[in-house]
Amino acid sequence: MNVPFEATLEFAQAQDQIDILFPFRERFLFPQHEGKDVRYFCGNSLGLQPKSVGYLMQRELDDWAAHGVEGHTRARSPWLYYHHNFSEGLARIVGAEKDEVVAMNTLTVNLHLLMLSFYRPKNGRYKIIMEAGAFPSDQYALETQVKMYGYDPADAIIEIAPREGAYTIDEADIYKAIEAAGDSLALVLFGGVNYYTGQYFDLEKITTAAHAVGAYAGFDLAHAVGNIPLQLHDWKVDFACWCSYKYLNSGPGGVGGAFVHEVHGNNPEFFRLAGWWGNDESTRFQMKKGFYPQTGAASWQMSNAPVFNMIAHRASLDIFDKAGMKSLREKSIDLTNYLEWLLSSITHLPFVIITPKTQEQRGAQLSLLFLERGREVFDQLTAAGIVADWREPDVIRIAPVPLYNTYEDVYAFYEVLKNMQ
Ligand SMILES: Cc1ncc(COP(=O)(O)O)c(C=O)c1O
């Protein structure tokens, strides 16, 4: 849109009227506050439920009731091949070939499984570079992986922190650390978008830098997938994993996803832990000895697809296909810029936006760090029917999600802060 912003309700409503994505909010169910839809800014934590989930769930229950075990082949979406339903949609969202992605397990499980393939320290190459302040589950995963091989996390894990006085990481420090670690470096494992600050990293440059010293590059894309368009294949990322319950609206604990670049996924000799679902589909039911991996990321699957945990994912990916990541990103940039612009006029509350200012370094999230009164602001927002996210000790995270947030939502958020004494 890129028209000059105005701090009025009329302006916000006019933007909604010309927003081509506006009708998509009709496809979601909103929690209620005093008889009205809440203004939901928590899509970076748990996305809203697509309305079609109930219908699709019932359809699967009916097929189970009607066919029992034969549903594996006779259900309207045969369960034997259920995971195939996600390859094309996920590939479009993360910029991959369809064989490079798979919907399976959950995020931390996938991180561990992929590290078992991509973190196999030997010959003095055992270090991992990660961001300081990564999501705790990632920290625990990496600590235990290095311990499993007998290393001390304090030595094996190099954390990159913001410089003194800064809130976000200077990317130059990542590249310097990679170069300094050199041939002791096994892996660079970063979040695509940091969950706390909302900083989005240059995944391509990190990957190139890791490869230059002979290390792999992998990413936790929990806060990037469905938020920012990605090109994992072209960027030559080695592996990535994500959850689907944030921007991908696939429900609490919904099925996770994984990407493995085809140079590894199509190499049957590349190590992966095996289960029958990763075996070549044409021989899977011959019940023979000897694992023969199918091609691609799907060969990392172990168990048969958890169909009921994938239904919301299907509903959501269908919406993403119709909206398209390009349009979503365009609106997302404008909506977040509008929020930032409005907030910049508020001077009577003591907060700073710790998310990077440039749109290339962030997605649909602003993190507001309150020097004081944070909890009070959060409570006022809640009382006004605005759902935001409180992170101890002092941060409010807000995600204007382009699929269902409006300019009016953003204006309403600003108005609560503006009207506080
Ligand atoms: C960045 C990040 N990593 C890991 C996780 C853990 O995800 P899961 O419980 O699906 O393993 C989360 C959850 O919100 C997250 O935000």
Q: Care to describe what's here?
A:
The mean pLDDT is 97. With 421 residues, the protein is an alpha/beta fold. Strands 6-12-11-10-9-7-8 form a seven-stranded mixed beta sheet, with helices on both faces. Helix 4 (87-94) crosses helix 11 (311-323). It has 14 helices and 17 strands. 35% of the residues lie in helices and 14% in strands. Bound molecules: pyridoxal-5'-phosphate (PLP). Pyridoxal-5'-phosphate binds at residues 106-108, 135, 137-138, 191, 195, 220, 222-223, 243.
Helical element count?
14
Hetero groups bound? pyridoxal-5'-phosphate
Mean pLDDT across all amino acids: 97
Overall shape: it is globular
> Nearest-angstrom radius of gyration?
22 Å
Helix content: 25-40%
Q: Approximately how much beta-strand content do the residues carry?
A: 5-15%
Low-confidence runs of at least 5 consecutive residues: none
Query: Which structural class fits the helix and strand makeup?
Result: alpha/beta
Question: Got a strand count?
Answer: 17
Strand and helix map with partners:
Layout (H helix, E strand, L loop, with lengths): L8 H10 L9 E2 L2 E2 L2 E2 L1 E2 L8 E2 L1 H16 L3 H4 L12 H8 L6 E3 L3 H12 L8 E5 L4 H13 L4 H4 E4 L10 H11 L3 E7 L11 H10 L3 E5 L18 E4 L14 E4 L1 H4 L45 H13 L1 H19 L7 E3 L12 E5 L3 H10 L2 E2 L1 E3 L3 E4 L8 H13 L2
Parallel strand pairs: 4-15, 7-8, 7-9, 9-10, 10-11
Antiparallel strand pairs: 1-5, 2-3, 6-12, 11-12, 13-14, 14-17, 16-17
The site of pyridoxal-5'-phosphate has 12 residues, from helix 5 and helix 6.
